[in-house]
Amino acid sequence: MAETVDIHALAGAYALDAVDDLERAAFDRHLRSCESCALEVAELKATVAWLTHPVAEPAPAGLRAAVLAEVARTPQERAKRSASSTPSTVPNRWRRWTAAAVAASILGVGVGAGTWTISEQRLKAERVANAQFQSVLSAPDARLVKGQMAGGEVSLVVSPSRDAAVVVLSGLSAPPPDHVYQLWMVGGGYQTPHPVDDLGFGKGDGRQYIDGLNGATRFAVSDEDHEGATAPHTPLVGYIDLP
Amino acid sequence: MRSSEDPTQPIPIAAPQPRVDVDDLLIRVGRGDEQAFTALYDQVSARVFGLIKRVLRDPAQAEEVAQEVMVDVWRTAARFDRTKGSATAWVFTIAHRRAVDRVRSEQAGADRVRRVAARSAETPFDDVVETATARIEQQQVRRCLGGLTDLQREAITLAYYGGRSYREVAEMLDTALPTIKTRMRDGLIRMRDCLGVTV
Question: ipTM of this model?
Fold first, then answer.
């Protein structure tokens, strides 16, 4: 069912700025390892820049003075991208990196490969989820925590201001076909572990939007032999402490 | 809409292009040169403002966002990497992104649905033709847009001037996603060849 999409197919939409944040992050990532793609995208972006000609109109007279005045009192970012970059750039870089990491997990981008595989169907079905994900990823207070469990990686992006989190589980060794990995939020306002959702029978990969943090201090995964468990089976598959 | 001449061929009369090298200006801005910034502003502000106004359709907000964009250009100019594209493309990417962000942040909930529906009835290209003046670049863009198929042209103008994602464009044009992506790309490639764009 999944269609194989040549990454070039997205080059036009990317150049037109008509992709979402996750796709942009994934495409950016790919561009870093694909010279011919980078050249094509540079050309297409230069072409898109031409599209501004027909809509050009003189900016309001006051704008020039306002911009120059603000520029005169605005410090510039340092040229080098180093660990000691200015504080104002940290949230942006943080978000970009987070989005890239999550996008790579979600979209299954093969780094260095000439193509990537996306199920169009799946992407379409996940549009609503993407909007929720983006609201978390773009939050100024978004924090990323990562952990290992069951041979795979779990990434959580937590945003107190959005009162939500996004979790991406990738490469966990799959449970038996009649078992499910159940996700839990633990601690804080939760007297007992609070079930979030499960990954589906026999699945070791997935992602979830977690609506409501309730001060939880820990994210946990358990292995259950049925759906809808009300208490986690122990020992847990693993857990991650939240920031 | 098409003229009898082949619209995919570069215009025969070479456009006189007494152009300042915007790449050089932006590189100087990246080193903190305020004079270069002023020159850069004069080179790009009409296109920055016009683009943002087109996407937002609100002159007051467009002015506000244009100011944010130009200050952002100043602040982050050192990030510009000539090997990855032209300075104008870099500036307009920031402008477009900011404009779209503004549109999206405003169009929450049901209001958004209404406005999407209302806007989908519009034909941006006709507006473009209307506002185009005699300037050679504008003529070239018009001519090259005219050389696209209707679907290529609509996909490109809805995305860029309408600030739509390719998914929204696919829905608005009732066309499959892979088709829209392909039309955006091959439409831009045709535009590129028509305009003689190189990097």
Answer: 0.80
